[in-house]
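For anyone still unconvinced, we reproduce a single protein record, the chain in one-letter code, the fold tokenised, and leave readers to judge:
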Amino acid sequence: MADELQRTLGRNLRGFREAEDLSQEAFAEVLGVHRTYMGALERGERNLSLKSVERIAGKLKIEPLLLLSEPGRTT
């Protein structure tokens, strides 16, 4: 359970990437990160700071909470 938020963020990033029909490498370029880092994010292996979550959300033009929330779940 401790890593569930990281895995949720990873699943959400993968969902946004797949919705745009982008490879991990192309999506990493959009976000301004390295492709191996992108893969680690999607696998829930990286512990992001809130600042990083905000930056990524800004590049995706979404609210940061969308990256951290289970799809379809209300607060």
Q: What stands out?
A: The CA atoms of residues 16 and 60 lie 8 Å apart. The chain has five helices and no strands. The two ends are 18 Å apart (CA to CA). The mean pLDDT is 90.
